[in-house]
Design a protein that fits this description.
The chain is an alpha+beta fold. The protein folds into 3 domains: about 120 residues, no CATH class; about 220 residues, Rossmann fold, CATH 3.40.50; about 80 residues, no CATH class. The chain contains 15 helices and 20 strands. The strands form 4 sheets. The chain has a 7-stranded mixed beta sheet with strand order 13-12-11-14-15-17-16, with helices on both faces. A 6-stranded antiparallel beta sheet has the order 1-9-10-5-4-6, with helices on both faces. Strands 2-3-8-7 form a 4-stranded antiparallel beta sheet. α5 crosses α15. It catalyses: a 2'-deoxycytidine in DNA + S-adenosyl-L-methionine = a 5-methyl-2'-deoxycytidine in DNA + S-adenosyl-L-homocysteine + H(+).
């Protein structure tokens, strides 16, 4: 409320001259573009008598002219969610104060509490207070403002039944496709704004085969650490699969590291956090090996997400949820902006099983039968491992097997512990890219045209397709 001066003259408080000088200085500085902020406070909002309360105290108030007993006015900008306090000789508010032990002068205090404060602050728990000469500006904390923006955007797009998505460490986009299929099964479509991956070949396969990618999708070839803030457009759903080999026991052994944080690729977690601050997603979906769940880097990541006002839902998913032949247990978390609620339970729908044995997934043809051969070097390695007391064993399966172990990124190298199909006369063969996709229930179209090595790299570092589908349905419930 702003009060005009009384008719017939002016009156002065004890520090009126100083106030006028401060206000004059500020106006001059403003005209020259030299406004000086003396202090910024990121302050918690409290409550009193069902209204929001903002408390400002400290010596910088005096230096800004807001000394004990000085008059000021308060103006409220509901549209911009901002409160402005200005020194005013005829203001209707006065700075209060209290005397601290051992001090003669009272420390100035400004106490704001009213329905109008509540209207502006809303449910936000923190505000930003900027103190200048003669003026104090109270605005919503930037993180609270971002929470409001992402939840409003999500609900607006949900009402249109069309979400926006983006994926970090995308590969060829198998995880993204599965989540989109899950959303679609729940009655929602999605628009992919961007994919990020360090490997151009993977992105080119996605561009050629992935139905979630169109000509408007930005395909960014980069490590996530080097991304700039304006590279990524804000999205409703952010999907990411951070490097997993540094968390897995076999990967640590190969790299000769004790913990994941010793490896250089752990910096991807920093890029991930930067992207979260930049993109401000409403929902985050993350996948990794089970060992990542309690690693130091993931504990830090989850703590920061909680601080940014996300709720975290964690899952360990296996072949039963994925409906697959391949056994691939994975750790997933879904982080949802804390204002979004799921009226249903956290139970996940299981993906419908399509194949029940290895034999149902096999390809036919002469080119397939020509793949059978001996693997003498693996036989020798197994014998050596047994003699040395190591646990590595070959994994040989036949058409009647109803499950197989994990087929990884470097499957084309014919490593000792990954599954092979038994033939006759002691021969065996690696599984084809199409067969490996069938074991995971990955649509074969997504690896169409890929040669053996590239196709296995893409499917081998991806997911059980049913996992992403189940989580797509799960996140569609939030509103």
């Amino acid at each position: 409320m702003i009060i005009k001066p009384p008719m017939g003259g002016f009156f002065f408080t004890p520090n009126a001259a100083m106030i006028l000088v401060c206000m004059s200085t500020r106006r001059t500085s403003a005209n020259q573009g030299l406004e000086m902020i003396m202090q910024v406070l990121y302050s918690k909002v409290s409550e009193s008598k069902a209204n929001k309360r903002i408390w400002i105290e400290g010596g910088r108030l005096s230096k800004a002219g807001f000394d004990y007993g000085e008059a000021y006015t308060v103006t409220y900008d509901l549209e911009n969610q901002e409160i402005k306090l200005e020194l005013d000789l005829f203001g209707d508010r006065r700075v209060s104060g209290r005397k601290r032990r051992g001090e003669e002068k009272k420390t100035p205090i400004i106490d704001l509490c009213s329905t109008r404060i509540t209207d502006i602050v809303g449910d936000s728990e923190r505000v930003r207070i900027a103190i200048e000469f003669g003026v104090i500006t109270v605005s919503l904390h930037h993180e609270c403002r971002k929470k409001i923006v992402r939840e409003y955007r999500y609900r607006a797009n949900r009402s249109k039944r069309r979400f926006t998505t983006g994926t970090l460490c995308s590969g060829a986009g198998i995880s993204s496709s599965s989540i989109s299929d899950g959303l679609l099964s729940a009655g929602f479509t999605s628009k992919t704004k961007w994919f990020v991956d360090v490997n151009l070949r993977y992105l080119e396969v996605a561009d050629r085969n992935n139905y979630t990618v169109d000509d408007e999708t930005n395909l960014i070839v980069a490590s996530i650490e080097e991304l700039e803030n304006d590279d990524l457009e804000p999205v409703d759903i952010l999907n990411v699969s951070l490097p997993c080999d540094i968390h897995a026991k076999c990967g640590k052994s190969k790299k000769r590291i004790g913990i994941a944080e010793e490896d250089h690729s752990i910096t991807a977690i920093v890029g991930f956090l930067k992207a979260i601050h930049s993109v401000n997603p409403s929902i985050i979906v993350s996948e990794n090996v089970v060992e990542a769940k309690n690693s130091a880097s993931y504990l830090i990541l989850k703590s920061e997400l909680k601080r940014l006002q996300y709720n975290i839902h964690e899952f360990i998913l296996d072949k039963e949820v994925g409906g697959s032949i391949e056994q691939r247990k994975r750790y997933w978390f879904v982080a949802t902006s804390c204002g979004l609620a799921n009226p249903f339970s956290d139970a996940l729908d299981h993906y419908q099983r399509k194949y029940f044995s290895v034999g149902e997934c096999l390809e036919d043809g002469k080119h397939i039968s020509d793949m059978f051969k001996t693997f003498d070097y693996l036989e020798k390695k197994e014998k050596s491992d047994i003699e040395k007391g190591k646990g590595f064993r070959q994994q040989l399966v036949d058409g009647n097997s109803n499950s197989i172990g994990t087929i990884g990124k470097h499957y084309a190298k014919a490593r000792s512990t990954e599954p092979r199909l038994i033939g006759s006369n002691g021969l065996s063969r690696l599984f084809t890219v199409v067969e490996a996709c069938r074991f995971k229930l990955i649509p074969e179209k997504l690896v169409d045209g890929c040669l053996f090595t590239l196709g296995h790299e893409i499917q081998g570092q991806s997911i059980l397709y049913g996992h992403g589908w189940s989580l797509g349905r799960f996140i569609s419930n939030f509103r």
